[in-house]
Amino acid sequence: MSRIRANTITNQNANGAPNFPDGLTVSGVVTSTTLNANITGDLTVSGNVGIAGTLTYEDVTNIDSVGLITARSGIKIGSTAGVAGTFFADGSYITAGIITATTFHGSGANLTGIDATKIQTGNTTVETTTSRIDNKIDNVGVLTVTASGAKVTGIVTVFGQGIDYQWQGGTATAWWKSEDIVSESSWPAAKGGTAANFINGNGGSNGISYTASTSQFNNKKTVHMSGGGSGSLRTTNEDQNQWWNGSEAFTMIMTMQKEAHGGGSSYGDGAFVINYTTASSGGNSGGWSFDSFGDHTWGGQYGEMFGYTGTLFEDNFMQFSYPFRGLLMVRMGANFDYGELSVNGGNGWHSLEMRHNGPSNLPSSNFRSLSILNFAAESNSNHNFEGRVAECAWWKGKRLAGAELEAVTRHWCEKFQL
User: Quick check: pTM over 0.85?
Assistant: First the structure.
């Protein structure tokens, strides 16, 4: 074995590094300011390795790191021909495959390819907008929900206690709810605006009383008119044709109790009245009233539409005595066609009369107001209604029928336990 002891080794010209054509075996430490080498075997480094350039390597099976791996420009996963996923330096990630996770966090506001207003599986969708929700099956709408309610195309099957439906005014022009009665002189309208608010007519509140809890009407509020009272409750607005123009269709439904009859054998009392004159006029001429006993035009000079209602009303029952509690309805088409007066004692509507011609000489237009309990334009006690009113509604220009008539009937019969 030979040994070379030297401070410096150069090439033969003393101007460069020597060549080792057969390699160099070192069992100690190699210290180099610059190393430019190709290593074909294993390289084991017990200290730190600092690389200012690019470290390129292939066929790495695993990277085992107990600290951080920092990739300044991102990390690509997959072959270079078709990258399966890329982590970018800004923290985003794009993948060509499927992401599976037990939990996702974040707003999802920047997700693409997703309709934020729709959940869809095949042809079954649930769509939402600012005003409605649509559920469609095979691209056909079966359920639409809006602020006014839900519309279902098809059959609704209900289990349990059924549907608790409450009519909330529907298409009525004006609606006076039992809950809103304030006193014998004030009944604000639930629908129809301030024009429909009930206030006293010419006779004030004479004969009228207010009951906050009426046992006959499931402990709801009512107004009551005693026999011989001259007061009334009328709509605030008395503009001509505001409530009826003399020929258009209309419907009136009232929850009431008739305790006696005072209008004669062929006249109805003033449970509900269409007034032709203003409350301050001092004369009820032209007014038209209704109750379960029939109708009455003021003074009889205009004729009546219903002629036999009183007998038919009382003969609805095998034996009859007052009071009668239930619903009263007057409805008719334009020009008095299919004019019908009906009552419902809680077990279905009973049509008492149907006519096709109005009172013979009733004024043709310019009616002023609606009132209950009596005519509103004169302090009179001859044709007042004797009994109670708990709730009522008015439809201008409409002969009510179908689903809404069924709905209000069902709701009031349940509400007042008729």
Answer: no
